[in-house]
Amino acid sequence: MSKAAPFDMATFLRFDTVDKKTFFYQVSTIFAAASIVYIVGKCIYNRYFHPLRHFPGPVAASLTEFYLPWSFYFGVAEHVTDEQRHARYGSITRKAPNVLQIDDPELLPVFNNRTTHKPKRVYYSPAWGVGDVPTILNQLHPKEHQVARKRLTPAFIGTAVKKMQPLMQKRVDEWIEKSWEYANEGTAIDWSKWTQSLAYDVITELVFGAPIGFVKTKTDVYGVLQQFKQATPYIGILNRLPWLVEAIWKSPLGSYLIPAADTPLGKIFSVRDRLLQERLDKSVDKPDILSVLLKGVNEDGSPVSLDVIKSESFILMAAGSETTFSVMCSFTINIIQHPRVYKKIMETDLSPENLAQEDPQFPYLYLAIKESMRLMHPAPSFFPRLVGKGGVTLKDGRFIPEGSEVAMNPYCVLRSKKIFGDDADQFRPERWIDSPPEQLALMETYNPIWSYGRTSCPGKPVAEMELLMAFRALLLNFVPEFANPEKPWDHITNYGSLVYEGLYIKLKPRVA
Ligand code: HEM
């Protein structure tokens, strides 16, 4: 028997003497095997040993966090998937290994209270306006959130909103004037785009200090609306995989998350920066949200930085427009589909004199808008919260440990039969006044149209005023009709907000 050659450590350690192909093959095989063992082990842990294993849900949701982006992007629209999951698995379902989702309105205060933190995935949402400057939406800690909130609140109190009314009226008047051009031509209007144009012009007037001009030019200026539409699916996916965004954000690739100057969003940033600079140079005091942002101070009384103002104004633009135009579409659909409601609205006082009053009354129109938001919530998305110290023990004895995430989708909560009645799936504005008093109280208490608790929407008074003004003017001038009554819209997408694709509306001049 021949003797084996003696082992030569020096040769072994010299990389250039080893067959490189074999070496890389072996290393990648070991790496792949280790990854498979890790992933399988993690899935087994998530399914059989994780503290949330007792909560029912789809098998895939219990195995991996990738179920979140999958159900968001590849499933039917997320609100539909969520509704189906609740119907099958009950009020508390597992949406990812460490994420539960609730649709029981009475559980909202348990997971949305003064001490509740937002989970890290919210911080790493790539929705920032300027580099690494978190906006109010990204503040995880209640204290920091409160500081950001305090800065914004003066913009949304009654007197401030009332002063913004003429600015909004100008935008609505322009929208109606241009709508007349469509009506006279008999054009079928792409309603999503047209309502989006109004919403963006109103909000940029309020937060940048001037409208971008979508309505005036009847075009998608700089292609911004299209870019928003293209970006939202990716933002949604990344928001559901925060560790991935965190890794990208902290790597040299992070700079790619900030839109370059020649992209549509980059152009919007330059417009915003220019308008902001003009405002600073001329020290104009307009009754808009930008004025409030400019007067904002930090906790120690020092003025907020320009970057914070830029970030906040950008996020206000996104938060205040994508939601509002979605409601404009759902409301239009609802009144066309419910002639009874339309007739009843038209019998109420929609006159300008009424609007000019200190406290204008549009009760039925208001109820119809509110009901549209309830039934087709404009942001039927994912609002996760972190379970705090000590965890939460549910009434049935099940325990949700600290660090778990509990989310709600307003679309599902707002269709809860327990709170909104057996006809919760129907469009019936009267429910907000004729339901039994105890039920009415529950409906108002557990109503997440504007979210729930300390993160609820500060823009509510602005949005309500805008919606009332726009619909009042629209309905006094035109009778909206579906251009294709057989198939009024093509499909509805949900990448965070509901968009009615291919919804074409014809405006018939109204004969008073
Ligand atoms: C129909 C219109 C609107 C609806 C349904 C709506 C709904 C919501 C919801 C559900 C949230 C909660 C998000 C969360 O809990 O994480 C929210 C937050 C917010 N909304 Fe609105 N919104 C609307 C319009 C507006 C407008 C017009 C503005 C501003 C002018 C605005 C500004 C904000 C801001 C700044 C936040 C973050 C609040 C915080 O984190 O404290 N929204 N909105």
TrEMBL record:
MF term (GO), any: iron ion binding
TM annotation in the entry: 23-45
Keyword Transmembrane helix found: yes
Pfam families from the UniProt entry: p450
Key words of the record: Membrane, Transmembrane, Transmembrane helix
Record keyword Transmembrane present: yes
Origin: domain of life: Eukaryota
PANTHER family: CYTOCHROME P450, P450, PUTATIVE (EUROFUNG)-RELATED
Protein name from the UniProt record: Cytochrome P450
UniProt organism field: Sphaerosporella brunnea
